[in-house]
Amino acid sequence: MTERAEMLARIARRLGQPAPRDQVAWDPRASLPERPPSIPAAELVRRFVAQLGRLGGKAIRVAADAEAVDYVLSVVAPDVVAAGRGIPPSPPAGGEAQGAAAPGPVLLWDDPLLTRLELAAALASRGVEVSVWRPDLGPAALKELAARARAGVTGAWWGVAETGSIALPAGPGRGRLVSLLPRTHIAVLPESRLVPSVAELFRHLVEEPDLPSSLALATGPSRSADIENDLSIGVHGPADVHVVIVPG
Amino acid sequence: MAGGTFRARARKALENPRLRRAVRVTMNNFMSARRAAMAELAQLAREGLALGDFAAMRERARAIKQHTLDHLDHYLARAATAIGERGGHVHFAAGAHEVGEIVREIARRRGVTLAVKSKSMATEEVHLNRALQADGIEVVETDLGEYIIQLAGETPSHIVGPAIHKTREEIAQLFGRVVGRELSTDTPTLTGVARQVLREKFVRAGMGISGANFVVAETGTLCIVTNEGNGRLVTSAPPVHVAVVGIEKLVPTLADLYVFLGLLARSSTGQKISVYTHMITGPRRPGEADGPEELHVIFLDAGRSDILGTEYQEVLHCIRCGACLNHCPVYRQTGGHAYGAVYSGPVGTVLTPLLGEFRDWKDLPAEACSLCAACWEACPVGIPLHDLILKHRQKTAREGLDQSGLGGPLRLGAAAWTKPWAYRLSVRVGRLALRWFAREEEGGRRWAVKAPGPLRAWTEGRDLPAPPEKSFRELWAEHLRERGQRA
């Protein structure tokens, strides 16, 4: 506490104040634009899909929940889908420096939206190993699960058309590592949660009574250009990013 | 304190064509991407989707920073209170020694043997890695560029691209030593290896150490911006998160944060927004199974409060985007190592002499700047860096630290040029002298390429076109005579 008092007093002194000030007048409203004209949902979807595509991610709008399930399945278990159509499995694509281990489970948020889609049951019925982020499994087991998972499936709080970003909050059923450790991340986003701009997202965040302990605004696959300016995808975060926009 | 002078280090850099090419290519990429991003921002502003174009956003950003710094006592207390209310621990560190002590104490209490770090200039400044390694703790940088230079035992050459000076062959060798086998030099292989090696560290580490790009005083939210995701992993996977934050990183509210996020990535790499913008409000909450059990925020002074209330205060506006480096004609030739300090380029030229011992660094403002002000034009928070560099030069002269030998001649020249006759005479003498040293060159133009004595240093790297037969004043006088008027 003394360090705190010392530093504050020192700063106040440097600023010509006898003591640290309790009250300061500041109007943050000038930091956000006036409310923009409303943009039709279809146009927001179009922009979001285009932006994310430009960054090497993939967004798709589906007309019904069942389609969303099919899409997730086609991403996490292409062989299962192909076999269903009588196509023989193809060898996995390269790109990984390490030998491919057995594909791990698909790890899902414990989230009302994913429950609505009955995603866990649908994947399991096709023989795909599924785990759900339940805090009672314990932090160590969940961390290990996330590190082994072939894909993480989450909901999303908001989507931003301007940038192709999704806002991922943390919470008891919403592990941070689900969208972070697996190579593939699939986020399911209700169409009504699409906003036109980062500014608009912040207008919503400002109105939130309580921010989550972690809110990650994720924009496309993880990237780096640290090796001779050569763009590489998926250095630490996911290399393969999908956003499924569902009705609602 | 780096060895030698800026001049010597710059010379060494200039003799390295590979480094210069790497720096140039990187800078040009950043600059053209930035231009495109700013054009797109203007379009957004027209649609009402952004606060304004670059000029308007920068004006607002500047106003926010100025207000925050002018009331830093208030905002720092407010941030500390908000972080505490959320269950975070707040520490105040006067300098490098205190930061080291605080982090070591936390590490000892938690029995930490491995710490992972995401890129943080503040921790570079206070040599935190060394302090922890002294306690036998393994410290691993996880930003790909930082990891490369950590393996090489070097320092960052650019705020945003720390390893732009390393070739893929060098990187393959460094990584090969880590995994104990020969590696091919293609990017997917190298990043794949880094991903594998560092993942294991993320999962095992007992502590994650980060900086923060911004801290929102009102909510106590730390905002960390990365492209690779290491910032999120470092602050999510280990059981303890320690953030080392310069006291100048505060913004009042979330709305204000928006302004800076709109400017930061666009100014830095030309992205609309970085891949990950992570906002952390307190540690893990009841019922949550990941995120740190303990969050410590260390507010670092390390010479910053001495800048408050001075004519240099605006340098504390810096959001470390690197735009001034990318646009600086000196940096573009020498790269970052020539500056010999943590912060390079124009902002380093201003900041390093303020944070360190002025007389040790006075050659930076004297030598590493042509006062062209490209840095100021590019700066997303409008810091008049060229002005501040000039202030450093004035201070050098005022305190009698100038050893260039130019002080006398310059004073003489300044005195002479206050009188029209003396000015005319000096220009005439100068012109004749220049013509004397001019050499015939291709294309029929004459150039002055070498000057004698004390002027030699100045002409070593520059050629001047030889002055014409007649000066403008003489031509004008003739013109008036022809028209029968008097000058």
Layout: helices, strands, pairs:
The complex is a heterodimer of chains A (248) and B (487).
Chain A: H1 2-14, H2 41-54, E1 58-61, H3 65-76, H4 78-84, E2 106-108, H5 112-117, H6 119-125, E3 130-132, H7 139-148, E4 151-154, E5 158-160, E6 165-169, E7 184-190, E8 194-195, H8 198-207, E9 214-219, E10 223-224, E11 232-233, E12 240-246
Parallel strand pairs in A: 1-12, 2-3, 2-4, 4-7, 5-8, 7-12
Antiparallel strand pairs in A: 5-6, 6-9, 10-11
Chain B: H1 6-14, H2 17-46, H3 54-70, H4 72-85, E1 89-93, H5 96-110, E2 114-117, H6 121-125, H7 128-133, E3 138-141, H8 144-152, H9 168-179, H10 187-204, E4 207-210, E5 214-216, E6 221-226, H11 230-236, E7 240-246, E8 250-251, H12 254-268, E9 276-280, E10 294-300, H13 323-327, H14 331-334, H15 345-355, H16 358-361, H17 363-367, H18 374-378, H19 385-398, H20 407-416, H21 420-437, E11 438-440, E12 446-448, H22 456-460, E13 464-465, H23 472-482
Parallel strand pairs in B: 1-10, 2-3, 2-4, 4-7, 5-8, 7-10
Antiparallel strand pairs in B: 5-6, 6-9, 11-12, 12-13
Describe the structure.
The complex is a heterodimer of chains A (248) and B (487). Chain A is α/β, with parallel strands linked by helices and 248 residues long. Helices cover 32% and strands 19% of the residues of chain A. The model of chain A is unreliable at 92-100 (pLDDT under 50). Chain B is of the alpha/beta class and 487 residues long. Helices cover 51% and strands 11% of the residues of chain B. Chain B contains 23 helices and 13 strands. In chain B, the strands form three sheets. Chain B has a six-stranded parallel beta sheet with strand order 1-10-7-4-2-3, with helices on both faces. In chain B, strands 8-5-6-9 form a four-stranded mixed beta sheet. Chain B has a three-stranded antiparallel beta sheet with strand order 11-12-13. In chain B, strand 11 and strand 12 (446-448) form a beta hairpin. The mean pLDDT of chain B is 92. Chains A and B meet through helix 1, helix 7, helix 8, strand 9 and strand 10 of A and helix 2, helix 3, helix 4, strand 1 and helix 8 of B. Chain B: It comes from Caldinitratiruptor microaerophilus.
